[in-house]
Design a protein that fits this description.
Blueprint: E1 4-7, E2 12-16, E3 34-36, H1 42-48, H2 66-69, E4 72-80, E5 89-94, E6 100-105, E7 108-113, E8 120-123, E9 131-140, H3 142-153, E10 175-177, E11 180-182, E12 192-197, E13 199-205, E14 208-210, E15 216-227, E16 233-239, E17 245-252, E18 256-264, E19 280-288, E20 291-300, E21 305-308, E22 321-324, E23 327-329, E24 331-336, H4 348-360, E25 365-368, H5 377-386, E26 389-393, H6 405-422, E27 428-432, H7 437-443, H8 459-473, E28 478-480, E29 497-499, E30 521-524, H9 533-539, H10 550-554, H11 565-576, H12 583-607, E31 619-622, H13 645-653, E32 657-661, E33 666-671, E34 677-686, E35 692-702, E36 706-712, E37 720-727, E38 730-737, E39 753-758, E40 761-765, E41 770-776, E42 781-782, E43 787-789, E44 795-800, E45 807-810, E46 817-819, E47 825-826
Parallel strand pairs: 24-25, 24-31, 25-26, 26-27, 27-28, 29-30
Antiparallel strand pairs: 1-12, 2-3, 2-4, 4-9, 5-8, 5-12, 6-7, 6-9, 10-11, 13-15, 14-15, 15-18, 16-17, 16-19, 19-20, 21-22, 22-23, 32-33, 33-36, 34-35, 34-37, 37-38, 39-40, 39-47, 40-44, 41-43, 41-45, 42-44, 45-46
């Protein structure tokens, strides 16, 4: 028979285990069961049943900690159709069990699992019976089991969460992080099904090798078969993006079947902004006596990618940048955390929307951070489709992990499963061993120059086990031991990647100093800001809706030995602006500071992209793109999917052409395209009252894929400097320089006007300089935002989804006003 899959996703029941009964007692009372969602988790089921308050609202997180301390039963009675017993093989497949799970089928134990990231397949043909069958799943408290292992092996150091997490192969952020709540979920977080087959394609590997001139591609296909495949034949076909056959071959079916395909003039897969993302389909079919008995298909992209570490002209150390299809790219992007604490609520549509937001911001890379999860297939598929490269951490974060034999065995299984699942994605750019584990080891004196690393046991994972498994299963992809990593110290700025937290953490340097703390690849940096008012109103009770309320501060998890996020945020506010006391003003002010800070960072780091032979900074990944709950955090898109003003600043800083004007009056531009550009550079100076004090214009040539320094323009301190790149009279890039700190200055009313040009298009203009102009309207996607407006230089924005509604315009030192569709409005 052909391969048949019976999804077991309905009619599940959930109940808390009675701690007075033995763990293997399946005969508890019949009452007390709740309908349960699978895939899903205990919190999600209890919330939907009204048994717990929303953990995201108010202080409710504190009221639901008992859920993670309890054990939980899942139960399913299901029917097996008689025709499935015609198959010689019947397997129960568990794609993900969170985390300490024991499974019984018809009263017989069939599986024990202790790793959230390892799928399981159990042959059950002899254990199933026609008609009704029963499954029982027991999920034990990860907190209790982790602490039992901690008592056995000893407590270990970590940053964030209960230290027992280091023994548990579970999403580490579930234990609480400095941006997320403590919600220790449990349950079948991925699908469960029954598979019937005579033979199956168990694994498919198809590494792509391109010729140096990119004119030829070879695909080496390897298919692992299971079941009764003897005497069968394997057909391998490659379908071009338009569906036509680009290559095919047939080979005799073996346990590991191999075949090769060749493509001349391949359609190349490119990162976002550098070209198209054509995807081929690799299709493998297993035939016996002319009848298809198994099939597997996967999308692949034909591209050549390498990480370049070479000397940097005139500087010590070596570069760290990505080259795709022989073209060096500046990997501007963001760090990605799980988009929810309750993973069963994530949908393909939600993944698509969030990755689409990253792509629309001109981001080239997302780093899947090592304290979360190996994301759902839907995430990587949309990254493939939109050209967003993925830096993939293995799931280790901020801790001194153990390395005893049983732990290493589990890590090996985890790595094997995830590498096999993800290695075909063209978006996958790099495997990375961990997040900040080298950094905590260095802080503990276990790593760095002259240190005894014997106490850093997890080096056996990052420098032996993981590179070994990657080398066996995915040898064409780059492996990097950790992030940050490189040189003798994790703080090294001339080798490898670096986390730049001297701004915000550490000494809390002014954000204008980001350039002092660059690295060859800056894989973390960030500044906090409040989420949108909509998020706060949905999560904070009305009496608590003021900036320093207990509940508002509870929804800021930043931690440096004690909760201090609100204090650090207050420092950067005090350094920059006159601090408002009302909630709306505080939201705007914190988002203003975040936007300014990240503008400095992206512009400074990208300026150091340099030119061939001198790639001093190869990429910059902001911490972080997204949020998992309503919180004040470093995210540039809040938990409702609403971009903060910093999002627009990043989008402009990552545009193909970007112009810079430093506080010292240095003018520079980055041309991210492969062609030289000849443009006009216009420099102007304005008083705060709007008088144009000076202007000049000159022709400039911007080198391809390089930074071009355009000289220095001396400006007095109390004026607004403006630079524009023009093609004819069209503006292709802007930059401004304002007198700072902003708190020392009062900016006159700019005379801002908003003119509607179409159903969803507006032109904004001013009579005097306006800083940080923000447009707000519910459900609207703005083409641009957080604008610096100057006299004589109107800017046009589109408002996708406005649908006849109005909105609010606000800016620094101004009184916000509401605009209505169909009516021009001035301040």
């Amino acid at each position: 028979m052909t391969h048949t899959r019976l999804e077991l996703s309905h009619d599940w029941l959930l109940k808390q285990r009675d701690p007075r009964r033995p763990l293997d007692d399946l005969s508890g009372p019949a009452e007390g069961w709740l309908p349960a969602r699978v895939p899903g988790d205990v919190y999600q089921t209890l919330l939907e049943a009204g048994k717990i308050p929303d953990p995201f609202y108010g202080l409710n997180e504190l009221e639901v900690q008992w859920v993670g301390e309890a054990d939980w039963w899942y139960r399913l009675d299901f029917e097996v159709p008689a025709e499935l017993f015609e198959a010689p093989h019947l397997d129960l497949c568990f794609d993900g069990l969170d985390t300490f799970a024991t499974v019984w089928l018809n009263g017989e134990e069939i599986l024990r699992s202790d790793n959230m990231f390892v799928p399981h397949r159990v042959a059950v043909r002899e254990r199933l019976r026609p008609g009704k069958n029963s499954l029982h799943l027991l999920f034990e408290s990860a907190l209790r089991r982790g602490r039992e292992m901690e008592a056995r092996y000893g407590q270990r150091r970590c940053w964030n969460g209960d230290p027992s997490r280091l023994y548990v192969r579970k999403a580490q952020y579930h234990y609480g992080w400095d941006w997320g709540p403590t919600l220790l979920t449990a349950g079948p977080w991925k699908g469960i099904c029954l598979e019937a087959y005579s033979a199956r394609i168990a694994d498919l590997h198809a590494p792509v090798e391109l010729s140096d001139d990119l004119g030829y591609a070879r695909i080496s296909v390897e298919a692992a078969l299971e079941g009764g495949f003897e005497g069968s034949e394997l057909e391998i076909r490659l379908l071009a993006p338009n569906g036509t056959v680009a290559g095919q071959t047939r080979v005799a079916a073996e346990k590991v079947s191999r075949g090769g395909l060749e493509v001349t003039h391949p359609q190349l897969w490119w990162p976002n902004g550098y070209g198209a993302q054509p995807l081929y389909t690799l299709e493998v079919r297993l035939y016996r006596e002319g009848q298809q008995i198994a099939r597997q298909a996967t999308g692949i992209g034909l591209r050549r990618l390498r990480v370049v570490q070479e000397p940097v002209e005139g500087e010590p150390g070596s570069s760290f940048y990505f080259e795709v299809n022989n073209l060096p790219i500046f990997a501007g992007g963001a760090n990605w955390i799980p988009d929810d604490n309750l993973l069963g609520r994530l949908t393909p549509e939600r993944y698509r929307e969030r990755v689409r937001q990253a792509a629309l911001a001109n981001l080239v890379m997302l780093r899947v951070w090592g304290g979360g999860i190996y994301e759902d297939d839907a995430f990587y598929r949309v990254c493939d489709e939109l050209g967003v490269l993925v830096w993939q951490d293995f799931m280790f974060a901020c801790g001194l992990y153990p390395a005893h034999r049983e732990f290493l065995e589990g890590v090996r299984l985890e790595a094997q499963a995830q590498i096999k699942r993800l290695r075909h994605h063209p978006s996958l750019a790099l495997w990375c061993g961990n997040n900040e584990d080298y950094q905590i080891a260095e802080a503990m004196g276990l790593y760095g120059p002259g240190k005894d690393t014997a106490g850093f046991e997890a080096l056996a994972i990052y420098e032996k086990l993981l590179p070994e498994v990657c080398g066996q299963l995915d040898p064409t992809r780059f492996y990097w031991p950790g992030s940050p990593y490189g040189g003798e110290s994790v703080f090294e700025s001339t080798v490898g990647d670096r986390h730049t937290w001297e701004v915000w953490h550490g000494a809390m340097y002014p954000y204008s100093q980001y350039r002092r703390f660059e690295g060859r690849f800056v894989s973390e940096f960030g500044m906090q800001a409040f989420p949108s008012r909509a998020v706060l109103e949905a999560a904070i009770p009305p009496p608590e809706r003021f900036p320093q309320s207990r509940t508002v501060e509870h929804h800021n998890k930043a931690w440096s030995g004690f909760p201090d996020g609100h204090r650090r945020l207050a420092v950067y506010l005090a350094d920059t602006l006159r601090t408002p006391v009302d909630l709306e003003g505080y939201i705007y002010a914190t988002q203003f500071v975040q936007a300014e800070a990240l503008g400095y960072a992206y512009r400074d780091f990208r300026r150091r992209w340099g030119r061939p032979g001198g790639r001093a900074v190869g990429g910059a990944l902001v911490w972080q793109l997204n949020d998992c709950w309503p919180v004040t955090s470093w995210a540039v898109i809040d938990s409702a999917g609403i971009p903060k003003p910093a999002y627009s600043v990043i989008r402009r800083a990552m545009a193909p052409l970007v112009l810079g004007l430093s506080p010292e009056g240095e003018v520079w531009a980055v041309n991210g395209t492969p062609q030289a550009r000849t443009l006009d550079l216009e420099l102007s100076a304005f008083s705060l009252d709007g008088e144009r004090l000076a202007t000049e214009r000159k022709r400039v040539v911007l080198e391809p894929n390089a930074t071009t320094e355009l000289g220095r323009w001396e400006l007095p301190g109390q004026v607004v400097g403006a630079a524009r790149l023009l093609e004819g009279e069209g503006v292709v890039a802007r930059a401004t320089r304002w007198p700072e700190p902003f708190k020392y200055h009062r900016f006159p009313d700019p005379g801002l006007s908003l003119e509607q040009l179409g159903d969803d298009e507006f032109r904004l203009s001013v009579q005097r300089p306006a800083k940080g102009v923000v447009l707000e309207a519910e459900g609207v996607r703005w083409s641009d935002n957080f604008l610096d407006l100057l006299p004589g230089d109107p800017q046009t924005v589109r408002a996708e989804g406005l649908k006849g509604a109005g909105g609010v315009v606000r800016w620094l030192d101004g009184s916000p006003f509401r605009f209505e569709v169909g009516a021009a409005r001035g301040s």
